[in-house]
Write a structure and sequence with these properties.
4-stranded mixed sheet, 9 strands, globular, Purple Acid Phosphatase, chain A, domain 2, alpha/beta, disordered N terminus, 5-stranded mixed sheet, 257 residues, single chain
Length: 257
């Protein structure tokens, strides 16, 4: 941390809505943090507070072929909208398992990813995301599909921000690389990043810097994001990721302040 974080105070406000959990992290500085989606996060000049909303394990697309699954997604949208309206965070972090890819019987799982981030995007709030073990898991065929009722009709996605409607629609998943690419390419408010290629297949490894309002090069805080694996590869923080974190933190903060 830079010296300007010596007065940093952290307050966790954790609330429960229905069966979903979210947390709001308020970080106080000598200045107020604000964000512009096209640039780094920066410190403002007034109240000295920066609020981060965290959504985890949303699992959009789970049991997508049933009535129950889509209803849960609608409820999640309502919960997130309520949280965002009441808390008005300056940044939202999607903390993995945004979708349940192993339950999504279409090639373009980004349809559900778009739905999950839509309350944040619609309000113009910047966000960042990391992957969990369910975000690019291969589709698992439900055993009940092989009983008398048979395989349900495959509902292909309609055109949306990340899907032209022309792609092949079939029983296969969408990998981390494609999910991250579509999020970054189609959302100017996203602060998500592709990590170093030598950490592949781990993708969402990156650092976000919070800068001083009068000096973009002067950092007041750093946020580290690590891809914990799962889905298309084992659930693990690799030794390469640990080494990257060590080198990155020393590069950013050589004096361990």
């Amino acid at each position: 941390m830079a010296k300007t974080t010596s007065h940093l105070r952290i307050i966790f406000l954790i609330n429960l809505y229905l069966l979903y959990s979210h947390s709001i992290l308020t970080i106080g500085f000598d200045d107020q943090l604000r964000t512009t989606p096209e640039t780094d996060l920066r410190v403002g000049e007034s109240s000295g507070r920066f609020k981060i909303g965290v959504f985890a394990d949303l699992h959009f697309g789970e049991n997508a072929w049933t009535d129950w699954g889509p209803r849960q997604d609608v409820r999640s949208l309502r919960v997130m909208s309520t949280v965002l309206e009441h808390e008005s965070p300056d940044l939202v972090v999607y903390l993995g398992d945004v979708i349940t890819a192993n339950s999504i019987p279409i090639a373009n799982a980004s349809l559900y990813w778009d739905q999950a981030i839509s309350p944040t995007r619609r309000r113009g709030i910047p966000w960042a995301s990391v992957f969990g073990n369910h975000d690019d898991a291969p589709f698992e065929w439900p055993l009940e599909w092989f009983s008398a009722p048979g395989i349900p009709q495959l509902l292909c996605p309609v055109a949306n921000l990340s899907h032209s409607g022309q792609e092949e629609c079939g029983f296969k998943g969408t990998h981390r690389v494609e999910l991250m690419k579509k999020e970054i390419d189609n959302n100017i408010q996203s602060h998500s990043r592709n990590g170093p290629k030598d950490l592949w297949p781990s993708i969402s490894n990156y650092v976000l810097q919070v800068s001083s309002s009068n000096n973009p090069q002067k950092a007041v805080a750093y946020m580290y994001f690590l891809d914990s694996g799962g889905g298309s590869y084992p659930e693990v923080i690799s030794s390469a990721q640990a080494e990257w974190f060590r080198h990155k933190s020393q590069e950013i903060n050589p004096d361990s302040r």
